[in-house]
Amino acid sequence: MEEDLFQLRQLPVVKFRRTGESARSEDDAASGEHEVQIEGVRAGLEAVELDDGAAVPKEFANPTDDTFMVEDAVEAIGFGKFQWKLSVLTGLAWMADAMEMMILSILAPQLHCEWRLPSWQVALLTSVVFVGMMSSSTLWGNISDQYGRKTGLKISVLWTLYYGILSAFAPVYSWILVLRGLVGFGIGGVPQSVTLYAEFLPMKARAKCILLIEVFWAIGTVFEVILAVFVMPSLGWRWLLILSAVPLLIFAVLCFWLPESARYDVLSGNQEKAIATLKRIATENGAPMPLGKLIISRQEDRGRMRDLFTPHFRWTTLLLWFIWFSNAFSYYGLVLLTTELFQAGDVCSISSQKKAVEAKCSLACEYLSEEDYMDLLWTTLSEFPGVLVTLWIIDRLGRKKTMALCFVIFSFCSLLLFICVGRNMLTLLLFIARAFISGGFQAAYVYTPEVYPTATRALGLGTCSGMARVGALITPFIAQVMLESSVYLTLAVYSGCCLLAALASCFLPIETKGRGLQESSHREWGQEMVGRGTHDTGVTRSNSGSQE
Length: 548
Description:
Blueprint: H1 2-10, E1 14-15, H2 26-31, E2 46-47, E3 67-68, H3 70-77, H4 81-114, H5 119-147, H6 149-166, H7 173-187, H8 192-198, H9 203-231, H10 237-244, H11 246-254, H12 262-267, H13 271-285, E4 293-294, H14 314-344, H15 347-353, H16 370-381, H17 383-397, H18 399-416, H19 423-451, H20 457-485, H21 487-506
Parallel strand pairs: 1-2, 3-4
């Protein structure tokens, strides 16, 4: 016994910081560390330094713990081959979503000429897609929270693919109106790919990876325009609809490779399935699994709307709804304003002309020219620098300040349009405004899945997406109808809305930068992990229940 005790004294004691909540006592939770006190053994702890984002070595994986959480496993396994595959797959979903949205600006003028549609029917063809998205976003979020992220995503993708291809065979206007509305209903579920994606990402990589998904959106819009240039003159719009569904078809086939979220499995009581998923990821990444037993979270009712309005999340939910509304309202409004401003030359031209309207038949139409396609292409390219700027600042300033900054810069550019600037300066201001409003949109996509717990994460994202569609529905009445009365009032509405959204971003109660995803809605913010990459000598841990 004495010999064993002597050997035990010689062993270094390795100190590990807790990276997740556990079922231990409140005193343990407050300390954030666990030591085995043995009489006669030195109490000093030897710190083991790990590089930022480095996985815990296999021989040291949870040596003093007998339990771990999904968050611990995701952080220990790190970013690797599995996440790269998942990034491409999620990007495909976003690319398909972008193509289905971009096709609206190509399909509408084509059908306007081919079927001799009046202007209000052409506008309705676009609006019905947003109505479908708005009405389904909350439903897809509820399905994803109750039956699994993978289940909700698969159903929505297959739904969109089926009705997207079917709309290519629409014989008359009423048919394509209904079918495109059903396509919009399916597209409302595509944002749930971000929920699934975020739950497999380690903390340090999460913001960058979700932001880079915007690159796939931009690629999708560019690809749609290029596809239209080659397909429309020779094969027509029906073939364009069929070929535009190819990314959805590829995703539908590959999504069966997707595992269900381990966080969802733990919350729903499927411990064995969660462990199997984590082991699969660890194997693909060539990283060790944490030792010990996976903690089963407290069973909760999932996907309940009232959980978004608990005292901890009520203010966050309302502010996020306005932020998402403002993002879509301003983004799609700018897209519509760009065409109007380019045609007029500048703001002063619109104001002075008062739209000297000639008696013009509402059935008069013009097919899109090659120059029109190039204009669509150039305005889309502005989103690439927006992503890069947001990518650079989001982990430096934090999510809240990044969103606020994007809104302020958009508002400032809108106000500068009051000046009678030339065509080149007009193009530059519109380019900067679109870059930052698209960057702000992506920052909201980073923040929203991070702030809600697993039980309501998909529903929270779904309701926010639904509010964004409300903004997209309203904005044509401002960017097109109000513009005819006063261009200055129109610009003031967009600028004012974004200034209010910037304030809303600052007033959000929780900053999610450097925080792990919250697992249980019964634990307040601040009881989650802080992150492994810190080099502080003390144990950094936020106070229970704190909201920054």
